[in-house]
Amino acid sequence: MTEVDGVVAPIRVVLVDDQELVRAGFTMVLDAQPDIEVVGEAGDGVQALELLRGTQADVVLMDVRMPRMDGIEATRRVVAQSGPKVVILTTFDLDEYAFAAIKAGAGGFLLKDAGPSQLIEAIKAVHSGDAVVAPSTTKRLLDRFAVHLPDAEEKADVALESLTEREGEVLRLVARGMSNAEIAERLYVSEATVKTHMGRILMKLGLRDRVQAVVFAYETGLVKSGQRDGPV
Q1: Quick one: pLDDT at residue 162?
Q2: What are phi and psi of 192, to 5 degrees?
Q3: CA 231, CA 109: separation in Å to the nearest integer?
Q4: 132 contacts 114 by C-beta, under 8 angstroms
């Protein structure tokens, strides 16, 4: 929730999906929450951009496949205008644009069949500045689409040389789909320490959030498609 003049206001959400029934379902779930309010709906990217010009929103739930303007281009434009945070809605097995949408600046992605609690948690996480990264889903998504990434392993040495050995290790584990808690257990450190490392990694590499860190690790060849975590 957002505090304005001492009053806590609900998180303002805009739904963008070309299926009216999908929007209706999300609206029913979200409007039942005391700290979330659906402030607008759009059926495609063009309508979304028009709506956002006159509507104050904190988070946009953005479908990928839509007529006129898809979610990738719409997300790119929203982010370029320093607009609200964007969460991509994807069916995963069908949407081959999800990875590109995340690269366009989305704060994360959510499967359309996610439960109400996951939807609510995702909105709150993105609104608070975190990225929506479901570790196992992110791993599968990147493994599937990493074939489209450039083979740029030689760039890794230059881009990553500013990181300490431990920061590089944390980045690898994040890219392999591990949560902060799992990384903390793996490295025998506190979860707060992992968060500190992540903050330094993002700052040194000039990345916006955890999603961009995962993309960066794949693009530089630090982690490759199909690579699995080794023994402790």
Answers
A1: 86
A2: -65, -35
A3: 29
A4: no
Please state the rounded mean pLDDT for residues 64-77.
91
The pLDDT tens digits of the residues spanning 23-48 come to 999 999 999 999 999 999 999 999 99
Q: Distance between CA 131 and CA 102 in Å, rounded?
A: 10
> Residue 10's pLDDT is what?
92
Using CA atoms, how far residue 214 sits from 52, 56, 101, 172, in Å, is 29, 30, 14, 8
